Amino acid sequence: MPFVAHLSDPHITTGPLAADPARGLYQALTRVLALEPRPDCVVVTGDLADHGRADEYAVLKELLERYPVPVHLVPGNHDGRAALQAAFGLERTTYAVEYPGFTVVVLDSLRPELGDAGILGPEQLEWLDETLGRLDGVPAFVCLHHPPMRVGIPGMDAIRLVDGPEFATVLRRHPHVVRVLAGHLHRVVTAGFAGTILSVAPSMYRQVDLGLREGRPVGFVAEPSGFLLHRIEGLEECVTHLVQVSHAGAPVIAY
Fold first, then answer.
1. 209: exposed, middle or buried (C-beta count within 10 Å: 0-12, 13-18, 19+)?
2. What is the C-alpha separation between 108 and 79, in angstroms, rounded?
3. Which of 99, 57, 115, 63 is CA-nearest to residue 82?
4. In sequence order, what are the residues at sequence separation of 6 or more whose Cβ sits closer than 8 angstroms to the Cβ of residue 11?
5. What angle do CA 75, 80, 82 make, to 5 degrees?
6. Short-list 165, 93, 79, 158, CA closest to 122
7. What residue ranges define each of the domains in the chain, with the CATH number in brackets?
8. What pTM, to 2 d.p., does this model score?
9. Stretch 223-241: mean pLDDT, rounded?
């Protein structure tokens, strides 16, 4: 049965602060390879680089170029679309990849004019509607960076997906969407959304404090890094597991 590893927010950079983000991504990628069975693919839901620079994507490409599992990259608000496309030879940052038994649909919510918030826009939503319609009946993972709804962390809710309600309208027409995969929050969040489940993965670098009080500044905490593993069996069963990385490793088989 299919498995999808869902990583997010590595914030790869260069220079004096480059070691920790690169180490976090490397540890997560090697932990994915230790899973049995090995996942069919990896999705990284945005903030691939910290400043969207070409030199940062060069480091990311070096980490990924010989990786033995397909990796699907999603732009986030820290990314630079042109530099990302140039580094990985991407014609589009919105695309669908079909696997036996499921489909990965990647969306681009990066809008520099909005600062750290995101938006999909009418044209991309129309493309999503058409793509999901063409793949009717096949379990689909719809992947984007910005969560499309409030999660109760005011500082992060202020920079969520602007057109979440319009996105939800499209999804409700396609009950074969088994998960919406997102990042941006730097912590695990699960919520019902538009007839499916929103799964937000933690960061592979550092986590955001659970600051639920209005007016509290967004801060970072030394919580474990990790990723999500989604296991599907047709349209009737989709299960999500948290795999910790920084505070746990693959099991050691004694005999």
1. middle
2. 11
3. 57
4. 21, 47, 49, 50, 78, 203, 205
5. 100
6. 165
7. 3-244 (3.60.21.10)
8. 0.95
9. 93
